[in-house]
Amino acid sequence: MTQKSEAKDEEKLSKVVLRLMRTFDKEVSRVGTIEEASSRALLSCVARHALDDFDHETRRLLPRDTVTAERARLKNYVQGTVERETKAVKDRIDSERRTREADAGRRKMIAAEFVPRLVKDQKKDKGLFSDKDEDTFIRMEKHNLMQKAATDRSRPRARQAAGQRPRNAFGFSEFDDALDGLISQRRPDEFFNGDVNKKR
Questions:
Q1: Which of 40, 106, 110, 184 has CA atoms 20 to 30 A from the CA of 99?
Q2: Total structural domains in the chain?
Q3: Which residues lie within the region annotated Disordered (predicted)?
């Protein structure tokens, strides 16, 4: 083997190493978006394939010492890249996990502060009172209705004395006779100008 031939092999060896490094970098960039466990396994496969390709393409190149040295350089490169990328993937996953935990913590704080208030308001809106509160509410409603009925019974007499036509106190025809008594002289078909109970 002449010096010219060895120089040619060394030039070819340099090109092989450079090409394998570029190919390796491309493969690594594709692996970076995958979850940690899969990323670590795939990066190891890519590194092993790079060294296997180097061995295959340089098996006939001389001198072997130079080939061995270049293989060691390529191995250090791919292993360093694998370690760096594995750490980057792990850091990214840890960061995403911390972000999710922080979001969950904020949601719990918001829920602890506002949900009891919302539940309380919802119970009020739906009338979900305790038995004691419900009894008190019913008694108050009955009292208010009795006062309103007593007040409304006096209104038709005052209106009739003033020459006004008596009106239905509650606005419903079925309560007219009960509340107005004998004061109301309208027939059932006259209620609401005949729009409700008009005979057809």
A1: 40
A2: 2
A3: 146-172
Identify the domain containing residue 180 by its residue range: 131-194
pTM reported for the whole predicted model: 0.46
Does 125 fall in a domain?
no
Sign of CA dihedral 170, 176, 181, 187: positive
Q: Which helix (H) or strand (E) holds 133?
A: helix 131-161
User: Cα(130)–Cα(125) distance, rounded to whole angstroms?
Assistant: 14
Specify whether 135 is located in the same domain as 101.
no
In sequence order, the 6+-apart residues with CB closer than 8 A to the CB of 84 are none
Which of 57, 73, 47 shows the shortest CA–CA distance to 13?
57
State CA 92 to chain mean position distance.
Answer: 21
CA distance 111 to 162: 62
Q: What is the pLDDT of residues 90-133, one digit of tens each?
A: 888 888 888 888 888 777 777 667 666 666 665 555 554 455 55
